[in-house]
Design a protein that fits this description.
The chain has one domain. The protein is built from 4 helices and 7 strands; from the N terminus they run E-E-E-E-H-H-E-H-E-E-H. The protein is α+β, with helices and mostly antiparallel strands.
């Protein structure tokens, strides 16, 4: 079952692809201030709580919120260009982080970003060129939206 924005209410793993048109300094909560290069940023996370993927993704897409997670700080300056997700009660975010690290040209711009509750080095990756997000899930049935009109409306 999905909500009005077509994201499922079930548990799952997700990826947000953001574009930062210009390099800039960003304060990321307790991680401090970081200089981020222009380009694409891929953030991976999981949504296992109430409301599942719909609740988490809709919150991430809203612009009018108080920062809570590391990604909220990057969302203040970056524009979401794509969202991908996999419905599953199993937590795949760590596997996706490992896969993202292997994407051509991927770097880890902020150590610990999005990974304060796990042993991953980070859940945020900088990629200069638009990546193929389908590489994250391997053979699993990942869903992807790049409906930028809908995303732009939701981000206002």
């Amino acid at each position: 079952m999905t909500d009005d924005n077509h994201f499922p209410r079930s548990s799952g793993t997700y990826g947000l692809l953001l574009h930062l048109p210009d390099a800039q300094q960003v304060v990321v909560g307790r991680l401090g201030s970081w200089w981020l290069a222009a380009g694409y940023y891929l953030y991976v996370g999981s949504a296992l709580g109430p409301g599942g993927l719909a609740a988490r993704l809709n919150r991430h897409l809203r612009a009018d919120k108080r920062p809570f997670w590391h990604i909220d700080y990057l969302r203040q300056v970056g524009v979401v260009t794509a969202v991908c997700w996999l419905e599953s009660p199993e937590r795949y975010e760590h596997k996706w982080a490992a896969a993202a690290q292997q994407l051509p040209g991927a770097t880890m711009p902020v150590p610990g970003f999005g990974a304060s509750d796990c042993r991953c080095a980070a859940h945020l990756f900088h990629i200069e060129q638009l990546p193929n997000l389908r590489l994250l899930s391997g053979h699993l049935p990942l869903k992807l939206t790049t409906d930028l009109t809908r995303l732009a409306t939701e981000q206002k």
